[in-house]
Amino acid sequence: xxxxxxxxxxxxxxxxxxxxxxxxxxxxxxxxxxxxxxxxxxxxxxxxxxxxxxxxxxxxxxxxxxxxxxxxxxxxxxxxxxxxxxxxxxxxxxxxxxxxxxxxxxxxxxxxxxxxxxxxxxxxxxxxxxxxxxxxxxxxxxxxxxxxxxxxxxxxxxxxxxxxxxxxxxxxxxxxxxxxxxxxxxxxxxxxxxxxxxxxxxxxxxxxxxxxxxxxxxxxxxxxxxxxxxxxxxxxxxxxxxxxxxxxxxxxxxxxxxxxxxxxxxxxxxxxxxxxxxxxxxxxxxxxxxxxxxxxxxxxxxxxxxxxxxxxxxxxxxxxxxxxxxxxxxxxxxxxxxxxxxxxxxxxxxxxxxxxxxxxxxxxxxxxxxxxxxxxxxxxxxxxxxxxxxxxxxxxxxxxxxxxxxxxxxxxxxxxxx
Length: 418
Fold this sequence. Notes:
Elements: H1 5-30, E1 37-40, E2 61-67, E3 73-80, E4 85-86, H2 91-102, E5 113-115, H3 118-130, E6 142-144, H4 145-153, H5 158-169, H6 172-185, E7 204-205, H7 207-219, H8 221-228, E8 253-260, E9 264-272, E10 283-291, H9 294-311, E11 314-318, E12 323-328, E13 334-339, E14 343-346, E15 356-359, E16 370-378, E17 381-389, H10 398-402, H11 405-417
Antiparallel strand pairs: 1-12, 2-3, 2-10, 4-7, 5-6, 8-9, 9-10, 11-14, 12-13, 13-17, 15-16, 16-17
């Protein structure tokens, strides 16, 4: 039996209607919804103005840093010459660190013996005749590794610096090659040595890099205890004068103190800032190079430390409840993204960076859900807080879904592309 044209059209229309109802309805009712629109507010000035900046002298080449939790040095301030300058006796710190990396001191005990030979005695006579710092040695003596290191660091003994690298590297020349390789391997781009003593004007670096060198030294427990004087005395240890010490009554622990014609007066030092409420004291390291005299150096050190104490107090960086963004769904639901926690940090006199907001794409969410993050750069790293939703963003329901096919189809395509 043949079908009339009108009947065929009716069947096709009916089939399409059934198909449309069977496909369009479920697709619209069950498909993904479009994401909310996020409008970021201007960076909230929750922290206010940081304290006055750290005071560093314009004379010489100066840097101040804070030792981070990982032992790294975060630069706080620079003053004077920022480029490469002679570093004087600070070069001895390189000699010690490069040596101890391959020949470390034992946790207890004096370490291996280092015999004093003719070359060591000749160095003593030579440096003594030049008026450079020395400690007396005699041929046939044996100094322990620990005592030689103490002589280099605390007494700034030039003849012991040569003795140490001659023992560890076979001579001063091979030491210079190895030490510069060590510096490069540890990321020192500007610091280079020409001898073990620092007497050569070709021992150069920047004040900023030398604060990193001090931080590396203090990360070594054995070295740190030598400067703190807290190490358990080793039986038979030699009496080594602490020539490096300077401004000890002002809370300063000098790590290296030297003078050469090329480098001028150079001081590497460390100090602690007072503990803020709920926080631990922070260790500061400083380098002041090419100072003309102590009348210039000492006030510069004390002014830097005094200003550091003032900026070591924490400021509020993010305040709980502060709005950082607005969200709106295409069907009209709205909410705010607010910081869920209060975060503080030490600004160290630097301006806080602008807040940045990241939000996870979402279409619906309950009030109180963490859907994003706000982060603020500070002098010593990023401070962040989750962002939570202030109001429910609900499903719009079947009527909105069925009447907005374009939005839902776009949402479906976007969902497939994620």
